[in-house]
Design goal:
By secondary structure, this protein is an alpha+beta fold. The protein is built from 3 helices and 7 strands, in the order βαββαββαββ. The protein has one domain: Cytidine Deaminase, domain 2. Strands 1, 2, 3, 4, 5, 6 and 7 form a 7-stranded mixed β-sheet that branches. It is globular, with a radius of gyration of 16 Å. Bound molecules: zinc ion.
């Protein structure tokens, strides 16, 4: 038996103003996207903003459905939209903001497993890490690459 240890690194910031200007702008875009979410069932509004290597920002938000399983998360809406508009432009970063009736959530909301997998595919596709910026009222968490959210991921090389 041997033990394998994976190191996860999370950078935490107190406010949006502690981030570089480009990331402040990206978080502002995710906040705005959250306002336009279609979430009549959960009343949980999530916005995501994707920053591409050409400096375009593409946003998305959660889209719910009365048949719940047909809903889609903000992260994947933004990511797939970005990839469909700019199929050859790498994704540099994604910012995510969630709010409920009280405003922006206290803690940063983490992407679900499916979104983590989609982000991993994006990293593999463009052969570069995606910076993930998650906003909460109490703090902002930043992950340099999906490996910090999805260690031991299923990747193309898993197919053999
Ligand atoms: Zn998700």
């Amino acid at each position: 038996m041997r033990t394998i240890e994976k190191r996860i690194i999370v950078y935490e910031y107190s406010t949006i103003w502690d981030l570089p200007a480009a990331e402040q702008k990206l978080l502002m875009a995710s906040r705005e996207a959250a306002l336009n979410s279609y979430s009549p069932y959960s009343k949980f509004n999530v916005g995501a903003a994707v920053l591409l290597d050409n400096n375009e920002i593409i946003t998305g938000n959660n889209q719910e459905n009365a048949a719940f399983s047909e809903s889609l998360c903000a992260e994947r809406v933004a990511l797939f939209y970005a990839n469909s508009c700019y199929k050859d432009i790498p994704v540099r970063a994604i910012a995510v903001t969630a709010s409920n009736s009280q405003g922006i959530t206290h803690e940063p909301v983490k992407p679900c497993g499916s979104c983590r997998q989609a982000l991993m595919e994006t990293e593999v596709r463009f052969n570069q890490p995606v910076r993930i910026i998650l906003e909460g009222r109490n703090k902002i968490q930043v992950f340099d690459g999906v490996d910090n959210l999805l260690p031991f991921a299923f990747k193309p090389d898993s197919l053999g």
